[in-house]
Write a structure and sequence with these properties.
- It is a single chain.
- Helix content is 37%, strand content 24%.
- The protein is an alpha/beta fold.
- The chain folds into 2 domains: 10-144, 3-Layer(aba) Sandwich (Rossmann fold); 153-373, PPM-type phosphatase domain (Phosphatase 2c, domain 1).
- Helix 4 (94-103) links the parallel strand 4 and strand 5 (107-111).
- Helix 2 runs parallel beside helix 3 and helix 8 runs antiparallel to helix 9.
- The protein is elongated and about 90 Å long.
- The N and C termini lie far apart (67 Å).
- The model has no long low-confidence stretch (mean pLDDT 87).
Amino acid sequence: MSEQNSKSPLILIVEDDDSSASLLESILTREGFRTALAINGAQGRAQAIEVSPDLILMDIQMPEEDGLTACQKLKSHPITATIPVIFLTAVHETAAKIKGFAFGAVDYITKPFETAEVLARVRLHLKLHLAYRDLVETYIYKLQQLTEAQQSILPHPEDHPKAKFCALYRPLEEAGGDFFDVLPVGSDIYDYVVADVCGHDLGSSLATASLKALLHHNPRTLYTLPESLSIINEVMCGVLTKGKYLTLCMARLNRMKRKLTLVCAGHPPPIYVRKDRSAAPVESHGDIIGILPTISLETKEVIISPGDRFYIYTDGLIEKQSSSSLQAGIQELTDICAHYHDQPLPVAVPSIVRRLFPKEAPPEDDILLLGVEI
């Protein structure tokens, strides 16, 4: 490898002809580029993984492994997939050129080499590649900021110790659409909210932030749960972009009155587990939020006892390939929640998720499980 400035782009030359390789190396090093050399496709691929070049110049016709095969393998490898490949070819190799584009090449340089053409094509594709890489890095940074912002608006058990809750939220991508909150209403009265915004993009994340603001702005002591959700629906209809909507479950726990009130807006039913480990979903039917200006909601009430628990979750926990239907997924979750009822809540919640999704069967959607101790 040449010893130019380590900040200059590194170009890997994969060429079995010594004179061609030497000429290319001379053209590039005189312009300040760093170079690395390989004599066939297999060696070139190994070099690419080792040195991470910014660009690869690859001959098509080589012994042992030709350029087309090597390019195809480079594009299927996670470390080298995004490295641009320019083929080196004779003018008459038209069929190979067309096939090369299909295999992932970005351009061709014809033999015999012209210095001006080599430098023009190399610089063009380096600029495109570096701009693309900068864009990806910027996007990753923004998504990391978004993830941190999302996590920062979620409550923690130490924020509300009397609420006696534990939650596990695992977004599928950086920008998740699931959301939960715990809101004090009065003395020993709390609202627990779980929502699922369709999608995993920036719009979904912004919708969760809007929902957070709405929940905290709404004076909860003045409104019933259906009234609160109707207000949220009216606002979200104006906030959500076309095609966006959300499902939501809100539970108001009043320990003094020993009553749990539940309302679900198109959301899967919460699961109630009694002290004796009997468990069942609490069905509460209602319209999803963000599509119609007015919605219909059904209120359910449960008489509670100390030692009971309830769980609110998003559909990522119950929509699994192993489940024959949504109801089968709900029943499986219900049985597992009952199974772990003797465990402390901070142990039970992650145990339930691990039971549903062992390491060999990762989830296919955002997953959120919120457990509450009566």
